[in-house]
Design a protein that fits this description.
Strand content of chain A: 5-15%
Strand order of the largest sheet of chain A: 2-3-5-4
Order of helices and strands of chain A: EEEHHEEHHHH
Structural class of chain B: alpha/beta
CATH architecture of the domain at 17-98 in chain A: 2-Layer Sandwich
CATH topology of the domain at 17-98 in chain A: Gyrase A, domain 2
Strand content of chain B: 5-15%
Shape of chain A: elongated
Radius of gyration of chain A: 24 Å
Radius of gyration of chain B: 23 Å
Number of strands of chain A: 5
Distance between the termini of chain A: 49 Å
Largest sheet of chain B: 9 strands, mixed
Strand order of the largest sheet of chain B: 11-9-8-7-6-5-13-14-15
Helix content of chain B: 25-40%
Oligomer: heterodimer
Chain lengths: 182, 508
């Protein structure tokens, strides 16, 4: 697993242009990521009108105009946007890194709920915290297991799932009839 | 900083070791939560060490992070999956469990905020007839959830008493024949209650709930009789009478009446008095509910409404008063919203509360039936229809079947819009494991079933209440009180917030 170090201040290499009515930021999509830019823009909507321009594969312009110009100045808007953008990059990175795991756990939850997989017993329920240091060997074993899980999830996602696996669309009578026929 | 909160400027972050989680800067400390409902309250210093990947395995914080699923390399998959099953129990039962039947639109009160779209008592054309009632019950019993809870609403349901009786008896007969679990509840204003009606309700195990906004001057201002007159004394009279009957008969202990209050602008000056009245009447819980700008309330919002921040301030102040009462031993009354949230947060369980689910309770958890047999995604959805917009109408008990309702485009839209992972801000919010959004609320207030969370009053209000609850959880004095509330475990089977506490006897 690659370690990904980030620093929250690295957003926006080009300084924002501040006028009396608006702040204009020019952001490199490759550096900042499109989702974090959209995410930060969305979060500003309670206090600013936000317009995005430019090329989503290259550079994106973000124009911020305060909804209440007396309450917040363009410079403050730009500072808040950049702070949120830095956090957005972290939030999206964490989300991306963990997507296969979240999907796997959700899948397991469905299997437990359906009775396909047994729920862990009480003795298994509270994992004891590991006091010992992990060896390099143990670490690589964990990495390998995570890779396996991710591969397994991909395989499951590639398979077609039934349109109504839990029978939500079936009426009570239909279910009873099915039961009687069985 | 946005309402979602952000990392400190220049914060060092190493993402490789972080499991899926969201964080919130609580001012001096940080809250961490994950999809599996686990939470941690960390000092800012600890949070910064965690984010920077500087919590060593020998660090006392490490086992905390590990056991609660915040370290990617140390996840216990079966346990996390089991936590998910427990916390989202509502997802594993097919179809709605709560069915709200509006047996009439007529009402004898003219409440300031009434969003139930009521009409004058002379309008008997808005009464449900027996044939529609029969078809409504038939439809309800065609839905697939093994457990059915029928809740009578209005208007004032006691104005169409014969149909209330018919539905009760017919539904109970069907439940017996089909071996279905059936719970029944009546939400009424008590002003038309009689001993005979009460006998019937007790005999048929129907839970009873009413509205009580507080002391007489407040209640009567919020909820006057049509044409004038004071309603509060009648509510208090019947609450006391029913309490007395329940106390005299141990079999009726589960039928202790419940009461709900709705917060208007006028309520803000009455927090302690409202609580004191509930204590005096022996009620176990008070539910500090905000007013929604839906239906009629939308029209009078400038008179009775308020900013969501004002509600949060009222909520915190009144909750403080309730906690003080508990600490001093003067009362053990509980606040219902706190109890619902604590059940989710601390116990990791689903309290069955429709408003805070992902996806929302609309259709998947509940359905509403109008007096004429029309089917709606929720009672609020019916109110939107009453204002002339049929967008949330899903069918009609005379013509529709369950498949057409669950497959309806509006159902799909509501489910998609209210799944928090589809919401740009909610998906990153620390309250995501416990929260929910309401498509009807956002359609009414923001013209979109998705809504726009940064400007949503729903979000401001709920985020504010979650902030209050987590601050109390960090305070040992409040935490002790809240733990006692959870021990009493009175948070089951309150699907709509209208079914009284406890586990009523089930009719089979």
């Amino acid at each position: 697993m690659k370690s990904k170090k980030k620093t929250a201040k690295k957003a926006a290499a080009v300084p924002p242009k501040i006028s009396s009515t608006e702040a204009v930021l020019t952001l490199d999509v490759k550096t900042e990521g499109l989702e974090p830019i959209f995410g930060a823009a969305y979060l500003m909507m309670d206090k600013a009108f936000v317009s995005l321009t430019g090329d989503r594969a290259g550079k994106v312009g973000v124009v911020l105009r305060a909804k209440d110009p007396k309450a917040v100045k363009p410079k403050a808007l730009a500072a808040e946007f950049l702070l949120d953008l830095a956090s957005q990059k972290v939030r999206w990175a964490v989300s991306r890194n963990n997507q296969p795991i979240r999907e796997f756990v959700a899948e397991q939850a469905v299997l437990i709920a359906n009775g396909t997989v047994p729920a862990p017993s009480a003795s298994q329920a509270a994992p004891e915290p590991a006091a010992e240091q992990l060896t390099d060997e143990q670490r690589s074993e964990i990495e390998r297991l995570i890779s396996e899980v991710e591969a397994e999830i991909k395989t499951m996602n590639d398979k077609k799932v039934a349109a109504d696996p839990k029978g939500i669309k079936a009426s009570w009578e239909a279910k009873q009839e099915q039961g009687n026929q069985a | 900083m946005s309402r979602l909160t952000a990392l400190a400027k220049g914060a060092a972050v190493e993402t490789g070791h972080l499991a899926a989680f969201n964080f919130r800067d609580m001012g001096g400390w940080h809250l961490l939560t994950n999809d599996w409902g686990q939470f941690l309250m960390l000092s800012t210093g600890d949070f910064e060490r965690f984010m920077a990947g500087k919590v060593a395995e020998t660090d006392p914080l490490y086992p905390e992070l590990e056991s609660r699923g915040f370290l990617k390399a140390r996840l216990d998959f079966p346990q996390l999956a089991a936590n998910t099953v427990k916390k989202s129990a509502f997802q594993w039962f097919p179809g709605p469990s709560l069915h709200m039947i509006v047996v009439t639109l007529r009402c004898n009160q003219k409440c300031q905020y009434c969003h139930s779209s009521v009409v004058d008592p002379s309008r008997t054309d808005t009464d449900m007839d027996v044939e529609t009632a029969r078809k409504t019950v038939d439809f309800i019993f065609s839905t697939p959830n093994p457990t059915i809870c029928i809740e009578f609403q209005g208007g004032e349901p006691l104005l169409n008493w014969p149909v209330v009786k018919f539905i009760t008896e017919y539904a109970q007969a069907k439940a017996k024949a089909g071996n279905r679990k059936l719970l029944m509840a009546l939400v009424c204003n008590f002003t038309l209650m009689t001993e005979d009606k009460l006998d019937f309700l007790f005999d048929h195990h129907v839970s009873i709930c009413t509205s009580l906004d507080g002391p007489a001057e407040l209640h009567n201002k919020n909820r006057p009789f049509l044409g004038g007159g004071e309603a509060q004394p009648k509510v208090v009279h019947w609450l006391e009478k029913i309490q007395a009957r329940c106390s005299a008969d141990p079999k009726k202990k589960y039928y202790l009446p419940g009461a709900l209050m709705t917060t208007t602008r006028f309520s803000f000056d009455y927090g302690p008095q409202i609580v004191d009245l509930y204590v005096k009447l022996g009620l176990e819980q008070v539910f500090l509910r905000p007013l929604s700008p839906i239906g009629y309330a939308k029209r009078v919002w400038k008179d009775v409404g308020y900013a969501p921040e004002e509600f949060v301030a009222f909520y915190e102040k009144t909750l403080d008063y309730i906690i003080d009462l508990n600490v001093s031993g003067k009362s053990d009354i509980m606040e219902r919203m706190a109890l619902i949230l604590l059940t989710k947060i601390v116990k990791g369980e689903d309290p069955g509360f429709m408003d805070l689910r992902s996806p929302a309770g609309a259709v998947l958890g509940c359905l509403a039936y109008n007096y004429n047999g029309e089917i709606f995604a929720s009672d609020e959805a019916r109110m939107v229809d009453h204002q002339g917009d049929p967008i949330f109408r899903l069918g009609d008990v005379a013509k529709s079947d369950w498949t057409s309702v669950i497959d309806h485009p509006t159902t799909r839209a509501c489910v998609t819009a209210s799944t928090l992972d589809n919401q740009p801000m909610c998906q990153q919010c620390a309250y995501k494991p416990y929260c929910g959004v309401e498509p009807v609320f956002h359609y009414e207030t923001q013209k979109s079933v998705f809504g726009q969370m940064p400007t949503s009053g729903w979000c401001v209000s709920h985020m504010g209440v979650f902030d209050v609850i987590f601050r109390k959880l960090r305070d040992p004095r409040s935490r002790k009180v809240m733990d006692k509330w959870l021990e009493r475990d009175q948070c089951r089977w309150q699907e709509s917030g209208n079914v009284p506490a406890g586990e009523p006897e089930v009719v089979r």
